[in-house]
Design a protein that fits this description.
Blueprint lengths: L2 H17 L18 E6 L18 E4 L1 E2 L15 E9 L2 E9 L16 E7 L17 E7 L4 E6 L6 E2 L6 E6 L3 E9 L15 E9 L11 E2 L4 E4 L1
Parallel strand pairs: 1-4, 1-14
Antiparallel strand pairs: 2-4, 3-13, 4-5, 5-11, 6-7, 6-12, 7-8, 8-9, 10-11, 12-13, 12-14
């Protein structure tokens, strides 16, 4: 699907989200995710909670291209700085670890007034596990679960049902760790595979699930909807 078509879908979904109407008709077939957009999960009995843990040297690395997010508000202007992100995943026991690394020459760790924001990164899953969910924040009938790391030390579990509907949902088992590298950031997000329906996506028993990514460069005044994203789903293959 071309970026222009994706933008039209995002615009339509933003309008539909405001009306409360489901985005996809019941008969719509879930689109196939190409094999080239696959991130393979390494299964290993290892502690992968640190971005520099030895197990990450064995996990496959996938380079993911990012694009500017749909500008859903007039205040969102400019071009996001992050062009690509490296993604890895490890399953150890009943936990999934996702490691993200990207270039960012300046660490932005505090918010100041209206011109300084924090660096951040996120992983997104469709709660129903299906690729017919809109990859840009879902829609009223197809919510998404976002795991977000922020450079001020916060890790948030978020559920969204379309643009502008992101709602933090407490989930103490979602953890994050970060390290500065010579190029920028290396971050690990970890959560148990199992989750209650009101907490977000359950990964228990799945062989694969669509996944999307986002990054914010606080030094570029990026925040909220001003970010770099994957406009289409990738596949996390267990």
């Amino acid at each position: 699907m071309t970026n222009s078509k994706l933008l039209k879908r995002a615009v339509a979904a933003a309008c539909i989200a405001a009306s409360g109407i489901a985005w996809w008709p019941a008969t719509a077939a879930a689109p196939e995710i190409p094999a080239a957009r696959t991130i393979r999960v390494l299964s290993a009995a290892a502690d992968a909670s640190s971005p520099s843990a030895a197990i990450w040297n064995k996990a496959p690395v996938t380079e993911v291209a990012l694009q500017p997010a749909f500008p859903g508000h007039v205040s969102i202007v400019g071009t996001p700085a992050t062009k690509r992100i490296s993604a890895q995943a490890v399953r150890s026991g009943e936990r999934l670890y996702v490691r993200l690394a990207w270039a960012d020459p300046t660490a932005s760790t505090t918010i100041h007034d209206t011109d300084k924001f924090v660096d951040s990164a996120a992983v997104q899953f469709p709660i129903n596990g299906q690729s017919d969910t809109l990859a840009f924040m879902g829609d009223p009938g197809h919510p998404v679960n976002v795991w977000q790391w922020r450079a001020d030390g916060r890790v948030q579990n978020i559920v969204a049902k379309g643009f502008g509907t992101a709602t933090p949902i407490p989930h103490e088992a979602l953890r994050g760790a970060a390290e500065r590298t010579a190029q920028g950031w290396s971050v690990v997000l970890v959560r148990p595979l199992r989750a209650r329906a009101d907490e977000g996506v359950s990964l228990q028993g799945r062989r694969s699930i669509p996944v999307a990514f986002a990054a914010w460069d606080g030094g570029n005044e990026e925040r909220d909807g001003f970010k770099a994203v994957t406009l289409e789903w990738w596949r996390l293959q267990f």
